[in-house]
Amino acid sequence: MEKQIVCLAGDGIGPEVMAAGKRVLHMIERLYQHKFHLQDELFGGAAIDAYGNPLPARTLAACLASDAVLLAAVGGPRWDTAPERPEKGLLALRKALGVYANVRPVTVDEATLHLSPLKEECAKNVDFVVVRELTGGIYFSYPKHRTNEQATDTLTYSRREVERIVEYAFRLAATRRKKVTSIDKANVLESSKLWREVTEEVALRYQGIALEHLLVDAAAMEMIKNPGRFDVIVTENLFGDILSDEASVLSGSLGMLPSASHAEQGPSLYEPIHGSAPDLEADRANPIAMMRSVAMMLQQSFGLSAEANAIEQAIQNVLKTGKATSDLGGKETTSSFTNYVLQELEAQVLVGRGRA
Ligand code: NAD
Ligand code: IPM
Ligand code: MN
Prior knowledge:
This protein is α/β, with parallel strands linked by helices. It has 2 domains: 1-100 and 259-356, Isopropylmalate Dehydrogenase, CATH 3.40.718.10; 117-250, 3-Layer(aba) Sandwich (Isopropylmalate Dehydrogenase). It contains 12 helices and 12 strands. The protein has helices at residues 14-32, 45-51, 57-64, 86-97, 120-123, 159-174, 190-204, 216-225, 237-250, 288-300, 305-320, 334-352, and strands at residues 2-10, 35-40, 68-73, 101-107, 127-133, 141-146, 151-154, 179-184, 210-215, 232-235, 260-262, 268-270. α6 (159-174) packs across α7, α10 packs antiparallel against α11 and α11 crosses α12 (334-352). It starts with a strand and ends with a helix. The model has no long low-confidence stretch (mean pLDDT 96). The structure holds nicotinamide-adenine-dinucleotide, 3-isopropylmalic acid and manganese (II) ion. The site of manganese (II) ion (MN) has 2 residues, from α9. One of its GO terms (molecular function) is 3-isopropylmalate dehydrogenase activity. It is found in: Cytoplasm. InterPro entries: IsoCit/isopropylmalate_DH_CS (IPR019818), IsoPropMal-DH-like_dom (IPR024084), Isopropylmalate_DH (IPR004429). Residues 4-341 form the Isopropylmalate dehydrogenase-like domain. Its cofactor is Mg(2+); Mn(2+).
């Protein structure tokens, strides 16, 4: 298979975890005889420094013309007071690609179960997916303005925007444990009242899938108290952002969780849920979220399930040996951990073919 992948390394730990992701892609290429054309483009703070724009026209054009986009992370204190922020480029990219469905799977690895702040019997049942609406809500609605005395953000959702993300969640639940939890603030927000109404209507078209509604404050509590109850969570943009970082703690580290973002048509975007981690020293970041984002890309954009499963299995096998980066209490660096995953990947695939 031959594919064009645009790689946006961005800022902070972005280039380091992107390097790990690319090494995994090169190993898959070699083991399975694929050709991935990896095209680097400037994005985020790096692009502000070069062009004064976090999403240069050239970068956007490359993304739109690609088979998939792989993104590491953007942002950092250097640009906090700059006229343009790196994060603005990320929002503009998501909007331009139309990637409304952000899929964030949350699982707890057997080998890192003891690192979860939850009791093991609670944490081991964690297996859910946060489906976050990604191109609407308070991030994108107008009016949005600020004076010295007052600032305004607006939270708008249309029926169609709610319908398509909730439909996405129901279709996903049909392939899993057949339960959707819709999270809103329908006791206060008008947008949530519409959200709940539309969700009820969509549910009528999916017999055999259970629907429950939770208010976002109670949901934040349930995620810690009884996370095993969740299968597919569907929620609006800001709630999904906050709840998915909360969910990452169940898995032991924010450095473990990947994401995929899908549009109605055109290339999908794959990125770890974490940011640029400016507090981390060089070569200390956990590359697992990036490697899992690569696996999601292989599976969801290219249909390469065996390759995606091999990556996940290699990560699990290395974790089982006790090797881990410092966020998981280990001693490995980004590059040494990546070396182990590559070795494991190669060994496992060759053993599978009876050649090792
Ligand atoms: P962050 O996700 O960068 O870091 C939060 C905490 O998690 C930090 O303690 C960090 O060290 C840790 N962490 C994150 N990724 C890790 C990894 N791979 N391995 C080990 N530990 C990891 O969030 P923040 O500090 O609030 O934000 C820093 C910058 O990143 C901000 O500019 C923010 O806007 C940006 N950001 C970007 C994205 C993105 O590009 N998709 C996502 C979130 C935040
Ligand atoms: C994420 C990030 C972004 C978001 C920021 C950096 C704009 O936190 O991808 O979760 O809020 O969507
Ligand atoms: Mn976030």
